[in-house]
Amino acid sequence: MNNQCILKKVLITPLDWGLGHATRCIPLISYFLSLNCEVTIAASPASKALLQTEFPALEFFNLNSYNIVYSRKKRWMPFKILLQTPKILRAVNEEHEWLKNLLVTRHFDAIISDNRYGFYSEKVFSVFITHQLQIKTSLNFAKNFMRKKTYKRINKFNECWVPDFEGNLNIAGNLSHPKTLPKIPVKYIGMLSRFKPKVHLNNVYKYLIIISGPEPQRTIFEEKVFAFAKLNKEKILIVRGKPEEKSSIEENFNCTICNHLTTAKMEDAFNASEFIISRCGYTSVMEILSLQKRSILIPTPGQTEQEYLAKHLMKQNWCYTFSQNEDFNLHFIKAHQFKYNLPNVNAKQYEVVLKDFISAL
After folding, report:
1. pTM (2 d.p.)
2. What confidence score (pLDDT) does residue 69 get?
3. Would you say the CATH fold of 205-337 matches that of 9-191+347-360?
């Protein structure tokens, strides 16, 4: 440990819209700890369960979940989310009040908020993390309106960190590289991944399939995955993305099924699998690309960000994608014939940003 590093107290809080925000906070938390920082985490139940398995010695605060519900039908998704806007805004205001009360009795040198818009303070240096500066929506008339509203919230923070690369070689395309940026300083910190490649590992599984996302689409996806696995003779590992449930392993057909894997075991599973099958969640994409793995990405229906990201990546030959209502067997065959051209990128760029950030506090 560098003796010149000053101990700082950092509060980290991920959004609970799926587990991706919590997952991509893991490398940040680990590196802050390596810099001799004291890290405290505020999280909703599922995110807290995941992070507590990784960092059992850290202090945790409980936050309410946003409880976002998706539509079963893709065409109704924008309206379903729109109807929940008052609930989302109420949650943002409540978490901001919660933070103000916490800061009365607790001191932090920095607040790192992954997409929780209420976690800013005039008293503490506050950083907002997002890869989606441009909100994608099927309601075209709403794009500029939503960006202005989003930037109004982001500009309450001191800095905005974007987990992507600056320039043309990037992961998120227009999502992270809009023509207009927030007024506060924006830093592109590179990809965030828990994993390191292990070239000595042989492929144990043909497919690693990761179930995730909000209901009811998570369960619909899981049912389709199980139906595919039942008819497939290849060796498959299915991770159900349920860290809050008891971690058990079940052998079913040619499959190994588990509720959750720790980072170390998930890292081994990624490295030991020929194909990674998952939603096109941004964190999953970063982890797949960091290991240069072939992937089949199936966006959550109606989630315009994932649908755009999947198409953007496939145009670059970084992944293969198809929609959830299409034939799994047919597209898995096509994925084997697809010409992947995986990028070789710096997976540790964020460490430089974090080190400079702590030194400047």
Report:
1. 0.87
2. 60
3. yes
